[in-house]
User: Fold these one by one.
Assistant:
Number 1:
Amino acid sequence: MRNAASIKLTSIHKRFGSFPALNDVTLNIQPGQLAAILGPSGSGKTTLLRIIAGLETQNAGSLHFDSEDMTRTSPRDRHVGFVFQHYALFRHMTVLENIAFGLKVRRRKQGLSKKEIRDRALRLLNIVRLEGLENRMPQELSGGQRQRVALARALAIEPRVLLLDEPFGALDAKVRKELRRWLRLFHNEMGITTVFVTHDQDEALEIADQIVVMNHGRIEQVGAPTEVFERPATPFVQEFLGICENFQKPGILPDPVEVPDQMELPGVVEARA
Amino acid sequence: MNAVATTELSNKALTARFGRVVQRDPLWVRAGLICIALVYLFVLVFLPLVLVFVAAMAKGVAAYWSAIVDPAALDAIKLTLFISFASVSLNLIFGLAAAWSITKFHFRGKGLLITLIDLPFSVSPVVSGLIFVLLFGAQGWFGPWLYAHDIKIVFAWPAILLATTFVTSPFVARELIPLMQAQGCDEEQAAITLGASGWQIFRHVTFPNIRWALVYALILCNARAMGEFGAVSVVSGHIRGQTNTIPLHVEELYNEYSSAAAFSVASLLALFAFATLGIKILVESHTARNTRIDNTFRSLE
């Protein structure tokens, strides 16, 4: 996509009351990358994503898209596409109205006609492979279909960055695997800077270009999947990703009895964390 | 034989649904309970309502009509319509603002605000009326200042409006807060990131999600506003043709032993109540249908 931006976070701090959610987080994401923020629950990963979108305000630190300072820009003017874990589709609008919403509210600024908006929304519907469902209501769709409508709605405004909060968390295992592969292919085509939050190590390792491992409001390590996997920077990263390794080489393990089904792994990690 | 089979079948179906055999009470228990409920409703609700109309018509249709088109009665009707319209409008704005701020923002003193919203329901209406007399009456806090500036509040329509608005203020907020809490802020946040302004979010996202609950709340609010007696009685001063609302006018007629006229005017309030009930049933069937559709699709997944 023509307007893929880099994301630069500098010394971000965020507290909720007395709880430090983010502690001095500095991070660069290159234009066009697909980055995964990976960590156990309570590690601050969703807060970080919401700060990038402007849905949460940091207590200190700055945020830049390319060289443009976004620190105090309203979420309304950041041009980010945000996909919520539970979709957050507008329940009283049809699929097409959902996708067209961002174009409709910016219509005056962009000078789009109603027909142009409709055509663009229909084109996005094709891109997320939901052609023919434009007049359905969100309640009439499956979870995977709703997630793709949410994605199309976020993409409609041609965002500078695309942010996904646990995008596959609410889906069943089979749909989740399909959708994440599809997201990777889709990203290859669109080339938009994308950040997604996950607690699923396999999900992050399988599709991301860059993995950001977080724990207790701090970044533990940033690097390509092979890098964080083969050369973990801290004991936490080793342990957190080690569970994947255990799964992939079960024969070497001293205690293979405890290795559960692959899709249940995140839950196990959370229970331990 | 056939009937027994059907009963067994339905018992089986019930067992399948609830996971245990459903207790069936003996006939006399069921009949007794239903009778108690019916007698109760008949004596407390149906009979008084019928009597209102019977007593109103006691002196014939002509007397009924003349009691209603009596200038004092017409003034009371006009005042009541004006007061209820104005207080419902004020409560619409206040209720929306309160529900919006409580469910969409975090701030200090939120718990206190929620408690305060309930206050008018827990205070006796007479006390609510007295509060305004103490504030704005001749001997009240602002009394001398108001008198010096020739502003009349107590014993005039502004106090009636204040008292009515106070008493009915919880309706809208109380109805909307639980609904908006259940719906959360995700849709609004999605709309912000898509570039919608505050007004666009309200107009296109929040309002469509709450509109039926809002209509329902306004109906109840209006019913209560029209019928409010205690608080209004304290502040109105009962000036015929000026500060009498329908309930006050009814009381006055009754105290003057014109009971047929009193019941004629009272029957108007009963008719308003019927209209309210009718709209309420309409709205409820609409919301019920919507939830049913939602649930059907949810169970299909």
Note: The longest helix of chain A spans residues 173-190.
Number 2:
Amino acid sequence: MPGHRAHAVRRPAWWRAPRTGGPLRRSTSDRMAGGVAGGLSARLGIDANLIRFAFILVALGAGTGLAAYVVAWLLVPAEGAPTSIGRRALADRRTVALALAFITVLVVVLLVMAAIGLTFTANLVGPVSIAAGGLVLVWRGADTEERAHLAELVGRTPLIGSPERRTRRATIARVGVGVILAIVGLANLVASRGPGLATVRAVLAVNLVIVGVLVVFGPWWLRLARDLAVERRERVRNEERANMAAAVHDSVLQTLALIQRAASDPGEVIRLARAQERELRAWLFEGRSPGSFNDADVATIAQAVSMIERDVEASHRVAVATVTVGDCELTVALRALLAAGREATVNAATWSGAPTVSLFVEVEPGQVSVFVRDRGKGFDPDAVGPDHRGIAESIRARMARHGGSAVIRSAAGHGTEVELIMPRTVEPS
Amino acid sequence: MSDTAAAGRARGGKVRVFLVDDHHLFLSGVRAELGDAVEVVGDADEVGAAIELIGERLPDVVLVDVHMPDGGGQAVIEAVGRIHPEVRFLALSVSDAAEDVIGVIRAGARGYVTKTISGPELTDAVERVAEGDAVFSPRLAGFVLDAFAADPNAAGGAVPSFDPELDQLTPREREVLRLIARGYAYKEVARELAISVKTVESHVSAVLRKLQLSSRHQLTRWATERRLL
């Protein structure tokens, strides 16, 4: 039947999906949690949602689907990543200890629940502890981008959402669920053992088990928690240092580079030094950080863009051709986006040698994109050493810290284009 | 290529250009930048004289400043366009106001460039306009993207709804305008999208037509509101 065949060629079956060759990789574009289903879909040519449904179905039984998913998350590298999360996580001793601690707590809790009569929990011990331990490894081993995605995922999850999003209703719901669980547990206990001395003995036994476990594992758990707190403080400090390095780079180091280039012109050197001095004072004594848009008079994207145009044209003697499409209020993430955009513009003005730098900013409902383009010398982005903080810190890391992305296209002799994209999320007010 | 432009080319091989600007310094600057690439057949520094002289000399392209006393470039384009529709206009300005730029385009200019444009680029733009194509600078592309924003909320709710025939840009037109706004030349746009320069030109001309024909009242309102943002 030719007609039938033509139909089959034109429209593939509903459960099919485009198939790609190559090894199995977790998808970074089509993902709900870890991108495992998206990756399997691309490898097998089966619709991703169908695979997700299968995982959920198997998870409903005894949590096996969940455990399988988390294990795949650990073992399969993400698209473009050299190693799997599992390999990275296992290399860190503290991460392994944390996962083990988590597993022991869970096993104990589930066994105690089984002992007091919730017998179905005994079946969950294996899968759930694998899944939970695995998730700990995933969290600790994930790169910045994936971690941001995870944080967003957790933030959206009911009951355990991050504190900023915690509302009155969520608190009531959480307390409600906890109380119901406790009542069910107690009821089970009473029902299975009957009233009287037996119940008291059972409760005593359960408590003894808990105390015993606490005596055995307690100190270890405590130490781990303390270690984690220390580590967290350290990370916050590191992040602060990175922010500060980016700010210093944007202002002081850039000005020093300009001064070196203008060494033969004393008037220019003095002007640059004065401007830098003013900026540093404003930062150190008034808390207005250089290169960012914290001033009260810069509240929208369009204002920030014209500020970049003004500043860069004044200090670098190039024309900045700015085009802004749409406008919106600046948020923390958008301020970071524009700070990275300013840095890219300054880089183009300083190094490209082109007389004009194009700066295009477009505000769309879901994202804000910034394009900085010059027709100058260009460079090989892969050949830039890690000691060049401008691209690594001020642009790439700054974007990643706020959940955005940066792509730099350049080739010697063909100019440079920097593409920065920041998703627009509704910030808690 | 139009008859006038063809005739101009046949006579001297060069596009005949007329300049209108009330800044004398700028007039001489543009003359120097254009150099020998085109034939400058005259200039004027005010609206009345410009209308008269253009009618007399019938140039291929008029480079007209947006901002001038007595109605600016818009007045010149409207007056000349009624009698000599074959004369083409390219607006040239330092003005940033969307209102003024959209105004001259809707009056009939075939393009808009800023005064920071380099000599060769300006010559190129003049020749393009002489051949009947549209010339979009990055800034004009940005204004148009803004005016035709897909989502009314994207530009602070200042975007009106248009007459359905002309109110939408096609996805391809949008892509072309985005690249122009990012600073790509037509040739670079063509390479990036893997299409010919001619196709880029026809997309841009289509956008120009939509800009000139869609409901006047609403576009003007958009431009006015945008200025207040």
Note: Chain B is about 55% helix and 10% strand.
